[in-house]
Design goal:
Elements lengths: L4 H19 L4 E2 L4 E2 L2 E7 L10 H13 L3 E8 H10 L3 H12 L4 E8 L5 E6 L16 E10 L8 E9 L3 H17 L1 H8 L2 E2 L10 E2 L1 H19 L4 E2 L5 E3 H7 L1 H5 L5 E4 L2 E5 L4 H9 L10 E10 L15 E11 L4 H18 L6 E7 L10 H17 L4 E5 L8 E7 L5 E10 L2 H4 L4 E2 L5 E2 L2 E10 H11 L13 E5 L5 H13 L4 E3 L6 H10 L4 E5 L1 H6 L1 E6 L5 E5 H13 L4
Parallel strand pairs: 11-15, 17-18, 24-25, 24-26
Antiparallel strand pairs: 1-3, 2-3, 3-8, 4-5, 5-6, 7-8, 9-10, 12-14, 13-14, 15-16, 16-23, 17-19, 19-20, 20-23, 21-22, 26-27, 27-28
Bound molecules: zinc ion (2 copies).
The site of one zinc ion (ZN) has 5 residues, from helix 1.
């Protein structure tokens, strides 16, 4: 008989518990659910110090149990009898769970026992079913104990800290191996490791966790991305604006953000006034629009501003650059007439497409059209919601976007199109977004003058192409495994003189490269040639130029390409014009 993978994973968690109890009889059992990629079980080892190296022994024991082909037999007991039995066996956590169930009016508790083929009982656990029927229904090479971690009983930090054993489990060894390999690859690309090597940003305890300080290498990449984004928007008739980082509470009370984001906002008190660090740019941009007397001829109005906003993510949510407290968005808002929505959405889609082609991520993407449900949860009126949902659906249809409708409980502002891309190792990232909003213009009483000299409300479209630049760059670092295309590489060229006497010629070349806006540097340390080349390759610098007597005499350079490993000799001017072209075209 075959079983669903979660059933196998969950059954394995019991086999883990049985193995632990056979080696550590005093360990207490808590819970052992199946999870994505495997399962875990929480134990209280009491005074015993359980270490990661003990996992080997447990894993071996588990394989033995599987080989014995133990049978899982499910049964139920009346709740009071269950509590008595659990009490007798000192399973304090199970007792607590059984008592919780009793408080919820449960009259019976599910158990199961493991037995050998000779009907000798080996293990009992209180648990909800289903399980496999016999342990040989599980492939003994399909799982691997991963690591130990700490977890509070019932997720409450006032409770005891338990030892959690994590494991991976799949249908068979091939699937397990494939997953472990993918994990290894992800680790190799982990932006934290690359960050260490490339010196990209700094987290200072004196500043605060979640407020990364960008080192020069990082700033180069970010500036290139920002400039490129602006280039794409400039061509579509956007205007740059700038807004301060602070605003009065009233602004966010008017916009409704204060109410929705109260717990995440940073408050600033000064004299008798209350301010917020800005959690988003929309309300500011509304004020910029409101200070103009636009007519229908001026519409649409499009503002672009890469801006940093601040939200107090709880520290357990902070995960390096994918979750930070200072978030820089490539933000933009456009104000248009209802019949202009569709064209404007298409303009944004074309920017998104061009950007992600350049980033080498467009081969596979899909679009999530989020609509509201249930209706009462949302801030705005039904009519506005319907209009906005309709406009986005029409645009997605008209331009043949690969979209799926999503009922999104989190979308409490307005409907949106989220663009989901896959990186080089096939992980999905939700990056770009287009949101259609009939409500902020209402709240801020925005208007323009129509053909009949009457005031008319504009629609606002919120859009971001890269999402948060911090998160986007974290994704990019792993996507490119630190080997950036030339236009993004913090250092594009390193010049390696073979010995000191060629340092001057090295500097001369460096000066020429810099004059052509190429990010170049000279390695004038006293290291050996081999060491210099190795260091340059470790830093993944795209081009290494080696200079020696021959090169100095001929005014040439020996070029080594990091990616292709090709080597050739070139006139310095030819090299400059070649790589300038590579930078300009943003070649991958
Ligand atoms: Zn179970
Ligand atoms: Zn916005």
């Amino acid at each position: 008989m075959s079983y669903e993978l979660p059933t196998k994973r969950h059954s394995l968690s019991h086999i883990l518990a049985q193995a632990v109890k056979s080696i550590y009889p005093d360990a207490k059992l808590a819970i052992g659910p199946d999870i994505e990629h495997g399962f875990y079980y929480d134990f209280d080892f009491g005074e015993v110090e359980f270490k990661e190296e003990n996992l080997k022994e447990i894993e071996k024991k588990m394989k033995n149990i599987i080989k014995q082909n133990q049978i899982f037999e499910n049964y139920r007991l009346p709740v009071d009898e269950a509590i008595r039995i659990l009490n007798d066996s000192w399973e304090i956590y199970k007792v607590e769970m059984a008592e919780d169930l009793k408080a919820w009016w449960e009259t019976e508790i599910s158990f199961y026992k493991n037995m050998t083929q000779q009907w000798i009982q080996t293990f009992v656990d209180m648990c909800r079913w289903p399980h496999v029927w016999k342990s040989l229904d599980i492939d003994e090479s399909s799982f691997k104990l991963d690591k130990i971690a700490w977890a509070y009983w019932k997720w409450d930090s006032n409770n005891k800290m338990l030892t959690r054993i994590y494991a991976f489990a799949f249908e068979n060894r091939e699937e397990l191996d494939a997953y472990l390999k993918q994990l290894e690859e992800a680790k190799r690309r982990d932006h934290r490791i690359i960050w260490d090597k490339m010196k990209l940003f700094t987290i200072s305890k004196l500043v605060w966790a979640g407020l990364p300080l960008l080192q020069p290498n990082w700033m180069v990449i970010r500036k290139e991305i920002e400039d490129y984004l602006w280039e794409l928007h400039k061509n579509k008739w956007y205007d740059r604006v700038w807004t301060p980082h602070l605003a009065k509470e009233d602004l966010y009370i008017t916009s409704g953000h204060a109410e929705k984001f109260w717990d995440e906002l940073f408050r600033v008190k000064w004299a008798d006034d209350s301010f917020f660090l800005k959690p988003m740019n929309c309300p500011h941009h509304m004020q910029i629009f409101a200070d103009n007397q636009f007519s229908y001829r001026d519409m649409p109005i499009r503002y672009f501003e890469p801006a940093t906003v601040y939200r107090d993510e709880k520290s357990w949510q902070l995960s390096w650059l994918t979750r930070v407290r200072s978030i820089t968005q490539d933000d933009g808002h456009l104000f248009c007439r209802v019949w202009q929505i569709s064209d404007e959405v298409w303009t944004i889609v074309s920017i998104i497409k061009e950007f992600y082609v350049t980033m080498w991520m467009i081969e596979w993407y899909w679009v999530r059209l989020s609509v509201r449900w249930p209706e009462w949860k949302y801030m705005w009126s039904d009519e506005a919601w319907e209009k906005a949902e309709w406009a986005l659906t029409a645009a997605a249809e008209k331009y043949n976007l690969p979209y799926r409708i999503w009922i999104d409980e989190a979308a409490f502002y307005w409907p949106k199109l989220d663009f989901i891309f896959k990186d080089a190792i096939w992980r999905e990232w939700q990056l770009a977004t287009i949101q259609c909003d009939f409500q902020l213009p209402e709240r801020f009483d925005l208007s323009y003058v129509n053909e009949a000299w009457e005031k008319e409300r504009p629609v606002v479209i919120h859009r971001a192409i890269s999402g948060s630049l911090e998160r986007f760059m974290g994704v990019m670092i792993e996507h490119f495994a630190g080997i950036f295309p030339l236009w993004l590489a913090p250092k594009q060229v390193i010049i390696v003189p073979v010995s000191d006497i060629f340092n001057d010629y090295g500097q001369e070349i460096c000066k020429k490269l810099k004059e052509s806006s190429i990010r170049a540097t000279v390695d004038n340390t006293s290291d050996s040639l081999n060491k210099k080349v190795r260091n340059a390759e470790m830093s993944k610098i795209p081009y290494i130029l080696i200079v020696w007597e021959q090169e100095q005499n001929d005014k040439t350079v020996s070029v080594r390409n990091y990616k292709t490993k090709e080597q050739n000799v070139a006139k310095i001017e030819d090299f400059i014009s070649d790589i300038s072209e590579e930078i300009k075209t943003k070649k991958i």
